[in-house]
Amino acid sequence: MIMQKSHAEQLDALSAALPSQIGIWTAEPKDRMYDRETIFRYIDGAGEVYRAYNMRSCLSRRYTSPNAPAIVLDIFDMGTSEDAFGVFTHDRDGRAVDVGQGALYRPGWLSFWKGRFFVSIYIEEETEGAKEAISDLSRVVASLIKDRGPKPGLLLKLPPEGLQSRSIRYLHHHTLLNYHFYLADENILNLGQQTDAVLAVYQRSGKRAHLLLVSYPNVEEAAEAHKTLLHHYLPEAESTGAVVVEDGKWSATGRKNKFLTVILEADTRPLAENLLREVLAAL
Amino acid sequence: MEAGKKVITRRDFIRVGSCLTMGSLMGLPLIGSVSAKKSEKSRVVLIRDKNVLDSRGQLSESVLQNMLDRAMTALTDTPDPVSAWKQLVTPADIVGIKTNVWHHLPTPEPLEVAILNHLLDAGVKKENISADDRGVLQDSVFQRSTALINVRPMRTHHWSGLGTLLKNYIMFVPNPWMYHGNSCEKLGAIWQLPHVVGKTRLNILVMLTPLFHGAGPHHFSSRYMWPYSGLIVSRDPVAADATGARIIQAKRNIFFGSEKPISPPALHIAAANTRFGLGNSRADQIQLIRLGWEEDILI
Q: Do A91 and B186 touch (CB under 8 A)?
């Protein structure tokens, strides 16, 4: 994990290095900074997403022009590259573009991650000039972030065959798991700040399944979560292994050391069982 | 997690195929016991006027006032606005106007002023009226309130799919994040809290420039707004929201050129009907009165 804070990459240093002009857009005189508490004042309910990924601070700069809508640059310091990647995976719509360590473009909004930073650039009304400015600005910001960082190591445990890479979500919290895949109203997997989880979709021979892999701080916590999962979600699994659930799809779960995995909504029993076997073998 | 605690899982939803029996699973009141009156159709007034916004998007206060007045008389079957508002409140009422301050798309101030003036016309004392959003739990009028007027613009929303009238009451709880699970499906529970239940006299869903899609941290782009130039007015928040949701869905389908479901799905609207008994979400249980401009009405 990249935890050390290179002075050159502090948000205030980035602020000083950012361009004051992009095309016809000029930076407003003062940047705004937000922390974990004040972020809600800035971006309303979605601030919870960034907090759930351990956001440390956020720098916001507006570029304005008398003849065009404002461009809003937000740079989130997520503390680690793993969490910068994680928040990037929260919304995976869009066209991939070559900026930073991963970037997506949707009309009016470009996001990318690099090192421990997640960067969002958006414009309230897209024009050709604005698209070009967003692209230019994204490259400048990416160049100012010197250090790259690793993706979460947990991703390396995922079986490669049939993995839909654009479906990968890295997260810590129950609320975010439920946002992407509703499992239960209570936190039956005991997810939280100390747990790392990956949710991904697999497709093999036209059959689909979801795979959830969670890493707990220790074996005891993983065992306890597994017990709770079996009790509340898959009580049949202890005797039958894979379980056919109410919609005719298959689920299976297993634990190895501090890792817990669940196969969800697999189209067939073999797909559920194969995925489970493969991921357990990789742990 | 507490041992023995009842947990509602994905499998429960699949099993029942809808939210219909979830109320009993959660220990919540069953539909019939809390809302026998909902066997009747809910009246919803949709009024539009293309002149409420000019070509630059500037709001005409007089046109907006006129829209509200027409909608209110149609909703209440009364001959004039004062009579309409007198059906909703009495001079003894203490009234909180629950607005929404989201800076990209707030409740229009002229609408707040119009509501305030109508409440005064109906005899409510000025000191017994307050308009607020994020401060409702600290606002002394809201704390003493006997009546609520709920007014907000319709928009898509990161957690709940849609920012609705139902969603607008999330500021009545100190811990809004507790309601974010499963696309905020449990929002209806807020309407059953002691300081909220039974107080809402009117719901106004502002459809002047709705936001039908969003992305990114700010969930906003003017690209995804359009001048629908409407208001949806009802005593039933669920029916008003369901009507607005159908319009938003229709707009998304047209804009994106194919079926583009609201994402995440706005489960809380149907749940407010089937699980919390707050009103009617089904189109066949809504008496929709259309007034004014009909072009591109989408419903």
A: no
CA angle at B293 for the pair B288 and B296, rounded to the nearest 5°:
85
From chain A, pick out residues whose CB is under 8 angstroms from the CB of B9.
183-185, 188, 232-233
Which architecture characterizes domain A2-144 according to CATH?
3-Layer(aba) Sandwich (3.40)
Give ∠ CA A36-A104-A205 in degrees, rounded to 5: 115
Q: Which of A49, A126, A190 sits opposite B1 (nearest CB)?
A: A190
Question: What are the residue ranges spanned by the domains of chain A?
Answer: 2-144, 153-282
Give per-residue pLDDT as tens, A55-68: 999 999 999 999 88
Tell which residue, B12, B1, B28, has the closest CA to residue A183: B12
Kindly state whether B215 is in contact with chain A, defined as any CB-CB distance less than 8 angstroms. yes
Q: In this complex, which of B1, B158, B221 lies closest to A108 when CB atoms are compared?
A: B221
When pLDDT is averaged across residues A101-116 and rounded to a whole number, the result is 95
Closest Cα in chain B, distance from residue A48 (Å)? 8
Q: Measured in Å, how far apart are chain A's first and last C-alpha atoms?
A: 19
A2-144 and A153-282 share one fold: yes
Confidence of residue A204 (pLDDT cuts 50, 70, 90): very high
pLDDT(B13) > 90: no
Q: Does any CB of chain A come closer than 8 Å to the CB of residue B282?
A: no
* Cα–Cα distance for residue pair B38/B241, rounded to 1 Å: 15
ipTM: 0.77
Residue A175 has pLDDT above 60, yes or no: yes
Which pTM value belongs to this model? 0.83
| Confidence (pLDDT) at A127 | 85
Burial class (CB in 10 A: 0-12, 13-18, 19+), B149: buried
Question: How far A56 CA sits from the closest chain B CA (Å)?
Answer: 16
The CATH fold assigned to A153-282 is Protein Transport Mog1p; Chain A (3.40.1000)
